[in-house]
């Protein structure tokens, strides 16, 4: 009897974990043109939406996925606060803040694209410091 209850609980936990994974997303190369444009859009939109006066830049792509048969991209990004203001030029070459101003953030974004029109829509974003 105890083993049946343990098995049932194990299956329920496994089922809950499977539901937590976004369905239909598969791994893709981080270098795909549409994906990289979506990453740039997500970082730009993050900078537009935060109240910080300094810009954040991409440090690392942790996950790169797309939903099959669509132009939806799922990405986990690590970003760091720079010494440049949000609307300064060439943020990619801007140094990161150090010491008291140093800040890194990890975000998950879902971006919908229409590549033929270079149109992007941020569908979901979740960030943690």
Automatic annotation (TrEMBL):
<dbReference type="InterPro" id="IPR000010">
    <property type="entry name" value="Cystatin_dom"/>
</dbReference>
<feature type="signal peptide">
    <location>
        <begin position="1"/>
        <end position="20"/>
    </location>
</feature>
<keyword id="KW-0732">Signal</keyword>
<protein>
    <submittedName>
        <fullName>Probable cystatin-16</fullName>
    </submittedName>
</protein>
<dbReference type="InterPro" id="IPR046350">
    <property type="entry name" value="Cystatin_sf"/>
</dbReference>
<keyword id="KW-0646">Protease inhibitor</keyword>
<comment type="similarity">
    <text>Belongs to the cystatin family.</text>
</comment>
<keyword id="KW-0789">Thiol protease inhibitor</keyword>
<keyword id="KW-0964">Secreted</keyword>
<dbReference type="Pfam" id="PF00031">
    <property type="entry name" value="Cystatin"/>
</dbReference>
<dbReference type="InterPro" id="IPR052333">
    <property type="entry name" value="Cystatin_spermatogenesis"/>
</dbReference>
<keyword id="KW-1015">Disulfide bond</keyword>
<feature type="domain" description="Cystatin">
    <location>
        <begin position="20"/>
        <end position="128"/>
    </location>
</feature>
